[in-house]
């Protein structure tokens, strides 16, 4: 059931709220003979009204654009849960704690408001159109965390802040269920974080200064500021060369190329690059060129690294369920960075699964702009306390898979894992989700029939729809 602010229910819309606030202001000036003290009190009331207005508008934006705080999300204790390659058995208390800590540590990028206007526009919020970019930022953040800190890194605060409560319950089914519930007194993630921090001081962990600084640096690079190399301002700028502008709808393939451009132009992480596959084919020669030669053994150099993005379409108008097995195989891989995609008209960042349900982070929550130029800017709004899931069959067929390879040896191992998943005997599909080919793309572009992209089985009508220009470049709102 959706959680809607009482103020939002009362006013119904931002327009109604503004009319109500305007009425209050007019009535406030009715008496021209007020004393100075009364005028000062009125100014204080106006400040309070503005604060209330801001909170109500934030609540309205969050409800309008898809965020509804769910009180409970259930997970089975009898089935393994995978989160970006990490395995959890929720029948064990230690694994429950590890899962919570791991989930909370993932970077959560959402709609923001009141940030510096995007260049050449009056946009100070991305509500309603920027969710696919936010999903791409979350994926990039995961890649940066793995590259700069390792997959085993956890946000220290997550180890002692219980952002969710875990309640084992009895179910009518043979297996037990865990309910991850948000207390009724809590409505928004950052409020929960502040309240629980004071409640559990004994669980605090020692912060590694280097890791904490790197964590903050990554969030600064992703912040909504014109100078942030991976922030919304630069993402929109790079989208301009691909025919997109602020306020337009972005698809999972477009944002893959935006991420590639962002990494190419940045000077913060020069040893990391992005490869975007062509026609559902990963060309090993092209990836190896980006990786460069492995550094000599015994040296401190780690060489080049690459994020591999594979835009695909898993069906015609809807997700083809024969691809469920392969999607889950990918999310079990240690090198997987997640999936940019969503459900119809709703962009999401998929990071795991249990049984036939996908675990995800949702960008459809409007939060105020955070000034990351400050030394100790708050971190809570960049981490989510609501684990959510949805049936894999509701997944929109347009998506982009992401993988990470630190060097050539890891890339070779990744190719072996992908080959097994793509050609598994237990897979139901007749055509692989994508293919891996030796050599470079230009070696095949001139050969007739070699530049072929495998497509899922579908009707002739659905195939014609797929081949329309920009068929997968719509925004999931």
UniProtKB/TrEMBL annotation:
Subcellular localization is given as: Cytoplasm
Q: Which domain of life is it from?
A: Eukaryota
Please state every residue range assigned to the domain named Peptidase C54 catalytic.
Answer: 97-416
Keywords for this protein:
Autophagy, Cytoplasm, Hydrolase, Protease, Protein transport, Thiol protease, Transport
**Gene Ontology terms describing biological process:** aggrephagy; autophagosome assembly; mitophagy; piecemeal microautophagy of the nucleus; protein processing; protein transport
Its EC top class is hydrolase
Question: Among the entry's GO cellular component annotations, what is one?
Answer: cytoplasm
Name the EC number(s): 3.4.22.-
Region annotation Disordered: residue ranges?
Answer: 26-46, 447-477
Molecular function per GO = cysteine-type endopeptidase activity; protein-phosphatidylethanolamide deconjugating activity
Among SUPFAM superfamilies, the record links this protein to: Cysteine proteinases
Q: Which Pfam families match?
A: Peptidase_C54
Catalysed reactions, semicolon-separated: [protein]-C-terminal L-amino acid-glycyl-phosphatidylserine + H2O = [protein]-C-terminal L-amino acid-glycine + a 1,2-diacyl-sn-glycero-3-phospho-L-serine; [protein]-C-terminal L-amino acid-glycyl-phosphatidylethanolamide + H2O = [protein]-C-terminal L-amino acid-glycine + a 1,2-diacyl-sn-glycero-3-phosphoethanolamine
Do you know which InterPro entries this protein is assigned to? Papain-like_cys_pep_sf, Peptidase_C54, Peptidase_C54_cat
Does the keyword Signal feature in the UniProt annotation? no
Question: Could you confirm whether the keyword Cytoplasm appears in this record?
Answer: yes
What the record says about family reads: Belongs to the peptidase C54 family.
Functional summary from the UniProt entry: Cysteine protease that plays a key role in autophagy by mediating both proteolytic activation and delipidation of ATG8 family proteins.
Q: What is this protein called?
A: Cysteine protease
Q: Which organism is it from?
A: Leptobrachium leishanense (Leishan spiny toad)
